[in-house]
UniProtKB/TrEMBL annotation:
Transmembrane segments: none annotated. Residues 40-269 form the AB hydrolase-1 domain. The lineage of its organism: Bacteria, Pseudomonadati, Bacteroidota, Flavobacteriia, Flavobacteriales. It comes from the Bacteria. InterPro entries: AB_hydrolase, AB_hydrolase_1, AB_hydrolase_fold. This is Alpha/beta hydrolase. GO terms for molecular function: hydrolase activity. Keywords: Hydrolase. SUPFAM superfamilies: alpha/beta-Hydrolases (SSF53474). It holds the Pfam family Abhydrolase_1. It comes from Flavobacterium gawalongense.
Length: 286
């Protein structure tokens, strides 16, 4: 039976408390708020992301209509345990987390590595997900997925030399529009000033990149077996998970729709957050 996990009160993502639940032998940190219903929206985050790396504009806009839940992967932020060494292992943790909260079915919004994890979850327990949004992501064995490792390290070093968050380079185009969107996005991530999550360790980055590299070299999965509605979103110039992967997934999922945002990169949904949220809510609530 489902237990109530949403925080009552007029919370925003900047103020909602962090909670914990035991699942798969670890203590998972999560934040849950919004309009409660039978089917919550679970947000699967990106490489090296803790709870503070969710875009408040997207989270709050969804929370106005649906209960939304974000969580830290094993060994990340405030979650305990040793960082998962493979994408399928992370999917098993996610399944255990959803069951620990008492849900039999959820909707998913997954960004980047979160999309890899979600696809592995579908292979194990497809009936757990009713609808899925896959943003800035690609399929197992997809074009350039294994190249994320080198690109990430390159832009991390670039960030160190320029005193910028690597997401400035990894998520956004380097023209004026992209740079302005990057500054706005990174500013939004700092809106939560109290009870912030624990910083992510370098060891987590290494483990997750290793897992992504292995997954990117693995054999493609048969996505045609999944009949659930899928909404795919990306920027038209994604360098991290190249945009052709989005078109590839849209062809391989039998019930998919796709939206590609102009003049944007990996973080297209953050650059166009207002447009994305309208499409996402229409898709999720239809």
């Amino acid at each position: 039976m489902k237990t109530s996990n949403a925080q009552s009160g007029n919370y925003t993502y900047a103020t909602v408390p962090t909670q914990f639940v035991e699942a798969n032998g670890i203590k998972i940190a999560y934040r849950s708020y919004g309009k409660e219903g039978d089917i919550p929206v679970i947000y699967f985050n990106h490489l090296t992301a803790n709870l503070d790396n969710c875009d408040p504009r997207i989270m709050d806009a969804i929370a106005a209509h649906r209960q939304i839940i974000s969580f830290d992967y094993r060994g990340v932020g405030s979650s305990t345990g040793k960082q998962g060494t493979s994408i399928p292992d992370m999917a098993k943790d996610a399944i255990a987390f959803i069951h620990a909260l008492g849900y039999k079915q959820v909707d998913v919004v997954a960004f980047s590595m979160g999309g890899f994890i979600t696809q592995e979850l579908l292979l194990v327990e497809p009936q757990l997900v009713r609808k899925v949004i896959l943003a800035g992501t690609g399929p197992r064995g997809g074009q350039g997925v294994s190249d994320v490792v080198g690109l990430t390290y390159k832009d991390i070093f670039k960030g160190l030399f320029t005193f910028r968050d690597p997401k400035f380079y990894l998520f956004f185009t380097q023209n004026k529009i992209g740079k302005d969107a990057a500054r706005d996005f990174l500013k939004r991530l700092k809106e939560r000033t109290e009870n912030r999550d624990k910083k992510v360790k370098i060891s987590v980055l290494k483990s997750q990149l290793k897992a992504i590299a292995a997954w990117g070299h693995d054999q493609p999965a048969d996505l045609s077996v999944f009949k659930l509605p899928v909404f795919i979103a990306n920027g038209d110039n994604d360098r991290m998970v190249p945009t052709p992967n989005s078109y590839d997934m849209a062809k391989r999922f039998p019930n998919a729709q796709i939206k590609i945002y102009d003049n944007s990169c990996h973080g297209g949904i953050f650059q166009y957050h207002e447009e994305f949220v309208k499409s996402a809510l229409t898709f999720l609530n239809k």
